[in-house]
Each structure stands twice: as structure tokens, then as C-alpha cells.
Amino acid sequence: MRFSITTLGCKVNAYESQYYAQELEKLGYEEVSDHEQADICIINTCTVTNTAAHKSRQKIHQAKRLNPHAYCVVVGCYAQFAKEKERDQLDADLIIGANHKNQLVPLIQEMVNQDTHRDTVSDIVQFNDFEAMPIHYFESKHRAFLKVEDGCNQFCSYCAIPYARGRERSLQYDQVIRIAQSLVDQGHLEIVLTGIHTGRYQDGNKTLADLLTGLLENTPEHVYYRISSIEITEVDDALIKLMKTNPRICHHLHIPIQSACDETLKRMNRPYTVAEYKQRLAYIRAQIPDISISTDVICGFVQESEEEFQTTLQNIKDLQFSFLHVFPYSKRDGTKASFMKGEVNGKIAKQRVAALLSISKELRKKDMARFQPVQVLIETQDGNTYTGYTNHYHPITIESKEPLSGRITLPWDTITENGYYARKV
């Protein structure tokens, strides 16, 4: 049978979709694109904003129109967050929320064999166990991802994730080590630890620093590790010391700030002030001088005045990030922020996004100029052109007549709008 997977939302969703695809292919199912005819259409949904929820519904209806006789499987955050009546209106054959994701394939088999219709969504507070979804092979054979944590306890006022994914929970330490070793056996050279709150990894008394120590000890010297994203409150001294002393942990951290104005942060229910964020950032940089730190920023949050935005703008410049991911605030019904008055005009929010993205370009060039030569993991090849990312997560294009592979060190020639450019003579 042929199946398609449509994925919306975050990198964790992308990871989970790849797990579903691998498990189905093991049983002889054939994956096709979501524009082709399929027997089973899987839509991995997102609900982080009203727009994301609308897109999820839209993709479900599109899949049903294109494949009127196919089984429709809806999984993920939107499925969990939607009310029962809303789920009924989807007319899906199988609905899976935050729980039973690792049983998606056997549930699909049951659906096909018995021609059943089932909604498995249960109350988000009824489960606390981490559902392991190990992926043992990534097609690129270079960078691999390993999901070690799920859920969130933070309850930022704009975010639906705690209601859609449940409370924080982590993959068992021994399982993480075994999956990493399997990825190494398949030839992967870099493993990215990922989760909703990767920095809050906890198995008994083992923290993220303990986990990374175990991974370093149980995998070969040529295998490097990267942390996908981490909160400033989660970068503890043990993690900083480990990154400082072991070059196999890439010296790049993505630490969301969301706003660089205390008044805005308070309305967002973020657990730090700008001064606390700056102080911790200064300590990290003092301990690891060559580290690159990127961030996320939300523009146009409820009641964000021009004065607040200018404060954010100035503080972002002062903090000297390596680059920014910038998003206009988008309302999500049911969150605390959705009940607040004082929405910012959409055009103003877009102007603020553009201003920060312009700063991001300059910040990236400035950060890139710090490193010469650079260490690169080669990821793609097109003729004599190779692309990859440096340890500090800057993109690079390399022209070389000789074959390139793996992790290499080389000098760059120029810095362009698209990253480093190098010729390997």
C-alpha cells in the first residue's frame, strides 16, 4: 500500500514523521509525496497558533479531496488540542494526539485489516511516560537527530504546547545511548539532541550534561554532538564545563529570548529578565569564548508598544547573537495571551520583523568573520559544489574538484549573503 505524510510545525514533528515513515516502510508500505495518489494519508498537525491550526485543517481536507477513497490519519498537536466535536468534523479514520504516537503503525494496520474508525485522544494529564520513537538511519548519513525529551511545563502565555504535548518527560538514559550507537553504526557523524525542552532532560538524577557525558564516552571520537535548542535557565554550569572541555560538542547554542524587553517578557510569562539573560550569556561566553549563540524573537506580542520594541531592538544589538529567527506574534485561542486586550496591527508587526531580520544579517556576518579556518560537516554535493554547516552552525558552499566527505577543516575565501564561500585547491 502507498502512504503519504504531510508534516506541519516544528522539528520535533519532522522527526516523528520520519519515524512513522521508517516503521511503515519496514512493513512493505511505499511512501509517496502528498501530491500523489495514496491509500493512506497521514497529516502530522501543529496547533501552536490559530494559523497553524487552520493550516492543519486545510491539509486534512486537501488530502481527503485528492484521495477520496484513502484512509485519513490525523496525528499530533492539533488533534490533541481540538475539542471532541471539532475532531468529529474532520471525518478522519484514525486520530492520535500526544499519546500512542509510537503505536501509529500497528493502529494503522488494525484500521486497514478491520476497516475501523478510531479516535485515541485522551486527557493530556493522564499520561507521563516518554514514548520512544527511535530512528536508526537518516538518508543524508551525516547529521542525525535523536529525540530525548517531550512536553513542556513552562506555560508561556502565548503557547499551546503544554496542552498539546503534555508535561515534560524524557527517554531513558540507556535507551538514548543504544540509539546513538545504532546511528553511529549506520555511519552518522553528528547527532543532534532534540526535544520540546531538550535542556530539561531528566532520567532519575541524570541531567542533559550527564547524558552528553555518557554519549561521548560510549561513541567514537569522530562523532560530534549538537543541542537543537535550550532555554537560558537550562544552561547549567555542568553543561558549560562539558562544552568548554570537549570539542566534540559543537560550540553553538540556540537560546530563545522571545523579547528583549522586561515588560513584554512579563506578559509572555517568560522565566527571566533581560538582565538575568544578559548575565548568563556573558558567563557562557567568558567560559567558551568561541561559542556562537543564536535566538528566537517574537515581534508584535499583545500590547507591545513602539517603546518596548525599541528596547528589544537595542538589547538585541547589544547581545550580539550569531543570528535571529524572527516571527510575528500569532494568536492561539485558549492560551492566556488570547484573552489579553491590545493586539498589535499586523503591518506594524511585519515591519518589526523586517527590522530585526536586517539586524540578523549583519550579526551573522560579524559572527562568521570570527572564525578562520572553519570545521565543516559536508552534507550535499552537486557536481563540484559541496554544502554543509560549520561547527558554529553557519552555512558554507565549497567548490572543489577533488571529492569531499565527512568533517573537514578549511579556510574560507569570502562571506556572502548565503554564508561562507570557499575554494578547495
UniProtKB/TrEMBL annotation:
Which key words tag this protein in UniProt?
A: 4Fe-4S, Iron, Iron-sulfur, Metal-binding, S-adenosyl-L-methionine, Transferase
Q: Taxonomy-wise, where does this protein's organism fall, top ranks first?
A: Bacteria, Bacillati, Bacillota, Erysipelotrichia, Erysipelotrichales
**What is the protein name for this chain?**
tRNA (N(6)-L-threonylcarbamoyladenosine(37)-C(2))-methylthiotransferase MtaB
Tell me the InterPro entries matching this sequence: Elp3/MiaA/NifB-like_rSAM, Methylthiotransferase, Methylthiotransferase_CS, Methylthiotransferase_N, Methylthiotransferase_N_sf, MiaB-like_bact, rSAM, rSAM_horseshoe
Per the database record, which ranges form the MTTase N-terminal domain?
1-113
Q: Which CDD domains match?
A: Radical_SAM
Q: Which Pfam families match?
A: Radical_SAM, UPF0004
Identify the coding gene.
Answer: mtaB
Q: Does the keyword Mitochondrion apply?
A: no
Entry cofactors: [4Fe-4S] cluster
- Has UniProt tagged this entry with the keyword Ion transport? no
Q: Which organism encodes this protein?
A: Absicoccus intestinalis
Q: Where is the Radical SAM core domain?
A: 138-366
